[in-house]
Amino acid sequence: MTPKQKVYQEVLHEIRKFIESNDLEPGDKLPSERELSEKLQAGRSSVREALRAIELLGLIETRHGEGTFLSTYRPYQTVDLLASFILQENKTKNDIMLVKELIEKEAAKIAFSRITEQEINTLNKLIQDPAIRDEQKHRTFFNCIFEKTEILLLARIWMLLEEFSHTIHADEYPSDFYLKLLSLYESKEYEPIETLFNFYSKK
Amino acid sequence: MTPKQKVYQEVLHEIRKFIESNDLEPGDKLPSERELSEKLQAGRSSVREALRAIELLGLIETRHGEGTFLSTYRPYQTVDLLASFILQENKTKNDIMLVKELIEKEAAKIAFSRITEQEINTLNKLIQDPAIRDEQKHRTFFNCIFEKTEILLLARIWMLLEEFSHTIHADEYPSDFYLKLLSLYESKEYEPIETLFNFYSKK
DNA sequence: TTAAGATAGGTGGTCTGACCACTTTGTGAA
DNA sequence: TTCACAAAGTGGTCAGACCACCTATCTTAA
Fold first, then answer.
1. CA angle B101, B104, B110 (to 5 degrees)
2. Considering CB atoms only, which of A16, A45, A157 is closest to B84?
3. What is the largest CA-CA distance in chain B?
4. Pairwise CA distance, residues B93 & B86, whole Å
5. Do A57 and B81 touch (CB under 8 A)?
6. Which tens digits make up the pLDDT trace of B10-38?
């Protein structure tokens, strides 16, 4: 009395096992659709349904005429689609900004005790560089912050929200904000971080 | 020279438009695969690839022999799959706990100024009720907290992480924790909330 | 008349085979 | 040697055929 899973879900599972047992890494090639179909005793269409699902999640990349490849996790595809469905509810747009700010704030606090002087200098230069677009500055700045937290999951959620918010409107802070944050890092003042974020909050 | 999208991606887009223009709501029925196939001038397999993708994202639900229906957004399917891929990296397990705690903390802070005495009483009873499992207490408790934040997105991310963490191990706080948090709410002390969370953090 | 059972039609689930478009590789001719 | 072309492999797509499942309707027996 197995719960009768759909074939494409089994295929999904098998592909995952294959990746694991063969130690595939981003960039590596998966077997061809026909090969998988034969190996897993499933129709090619079922294999394709599974692959499309994984592709949409951003876990693989298919290249016409070449093959299917593991990709580094890029949630962008997922984001676009989810956005087109979810963002219809107008309320969620505001939610996204709130949550993104919240996560940025906490990341900034976690990075506090880990960031080095050299990194602070680099970021200072970044913010004051007139040749870089503000939007790019924001991303690079917080990319660095999130790297320091060493919480990959947090970074991923943030990137996801970045993608979302990007489609709504610009979402950088004024450049004052970044400089003040860096100076708090330099002077090793922890508590004012929270205050700083709340002050610049874009509600 | 259009960038030549794949058929299933166009279908994806058409389905979304269909839902929007017909004002479909969760529970409503989508046209059958064959009907969509004919209407959109695409093969049935392409339509299915699109539907599988949407299904995996938890946006629709297909019932064998009945049809395809819009569902309220349930990320659980996505979670399971992403989990099976991502959780291979052992490090992320710890990440999940960290991020979940972080979000619970922030939600507790946001709820601070919005929670009523009556709700505090209800939660007090909940925690002290010996008939309820600890795990259930945790969920109910924070469900209430997240409702007060009125940030649906935050609640969703939390539920997602709950699902994840559930598969790892129990993750409640000692019941002391909940009672102390409630007493902070009662005595209207904001700052100690942060400290409380950090003290009980399960690192 | 009513309730149980049989049946037909619609729907998703799956497989096969065919063809197309694209890329890489190999082969043969200049 | 070099270049052009052919062949093979791969993803992209479609059409058609079944199967399994659900539902509504019709039939039949109580």
1. 145
2. A16
3. 68
4. 9
5. yes
6. 898 888 888 878 888 888 999 999 999 99
Q: What is the pLDDT of residue B75?
A: 47
CA of A65 to C1' of C29 (A): 27
Task: Say if residue A50 is in the same domain as residue A84.
Answer: no
B68 touches strand C (CB under 7 A): yes
CA angle, B34 as apex, A57 and A48 as ends, to 5°? 30
**Cα gap A60→A34, rounded to integer Å:** 17
Match 């064959």 to its residue by tokens.
B34
Q: Which positions in chain B touch A45 (Cβ < 8 Å)?
A: 45, 48
Could you list the residue range(s) of the whole structural domain that residue A22 is in? 7-70
Phi-psi region of B2 (alpha: psi -120 to 50; beta: other; left: phi over 0): beta
If you average pLDDT over residues A81-104, what whole number do you get? Answer: 67
Examine residue A36 and state whether it is found in any structural domain, yes or no.
yes
Residues A18-34: tens digit of each pLDDT: 887 888 888 899 999 99
- The domain tally of chain A equals 2
Cβ density class B30-60: b for 16+ within 10 Å, e for less: bbebeebbeebebeebbbbbbbbbbbbbbbb
